[in-house]
Amino acid sequence: QQRCLSFELQYPEIEEGLQPRHRFMSAFEQKVESPPDRRYQYLLFAAEPYETVAFKIPNEPIDKGENRFVSFWDQDNKKFIVTLYFLNPPKSEDGATTSDSR
Questions:
Q1: pLDDT at 34
Q2: What is the Cα–Cα distance from 10 to 71, expressed in whole angstroms?
Q3: What are the residues facing 84 on neighbouring strands?
Q4: Is 30 exposed, middle or buried (0-12, 13-18, 19+ CB in 10 A)?
Q5: Higher pLDDT, 6 or 102
Q6: Rg for the chain (alpha carbons), in Å?
Q7: Would you give the distance in Å from CA 78 to the centre of its chain?
Q8: Which of 12, 34, 45, 95 is most buried per CB count within 10 Å?
Q9: How confident is the model at residue 21 (pLDDT cuts 50, 70, 90)?
Q10: What is the pLDDT of residue 32?
Q11: C-alpha span between 50 and 90 (Å, rounded)
């Protein structure tokens, strides 16, 4: 059972012919929170004429397998959807996940 996040952003006034973009940013790149917290990373979304928005998400490996990281731009409804899954943490010999010890 994998954890996932799904983001749905609406851009009703996006410039014609453009599509929103997304990228990941490490806690050390950002300049808003100090000191940086390595437990988190940021997922940024940008589309003209809007300001870039960022979401703070766990700094854990993302599953890049088929249908595990999906972005979709709905041109008709001006809606951008990104869904991502986190890799399941490896289990230790006692059955606990490595993230249980955080």
A1: 86
A2: 14
A3: 5, 69
A4: middle
A5: 6
A6: 16
A7: 19
A8: 45
A9: very high
A10: 82
A11: 39
Q: Which residues pair with 41 in a beta bridge?
A: 26, 57
Interatomic CA distance for residues 64 and 77, integer angstroms: 27
> What residue type is 20 in one-letter code?
P
Give long-range contacts, CB 8 A cutoff, 24+ apart: 38-43. 39/102, 43/7, 43/82, 43/84
User: Residue with structure tokens 């700094």?
Assistant: 59
- Per-residue model confidence as pLDDT tens digits over 37-92: 999 999 999 999 999 999 999 999 999 999 999 999 999 999 999 999 999 876 65
Cα separation, 27 vs 18, whole angstroms = 28
pLDDT of residue 96: 58
Nearest partner of 46 among 9, 74, 84, judged by Cα: 9
Closest by alpha carbon to 42, among 63, 64, 57? 57
* Angle of CA points 39, 99, 61, to nearest 5°: 60
pTM, entire model: 0.81
- In single-letter form, the type of residue at position 78 comes to K
Q: Which residue has the tokens 């943490």?
A: 89
**C-alpha span between 40 and 30 (Å, rounded):** 11
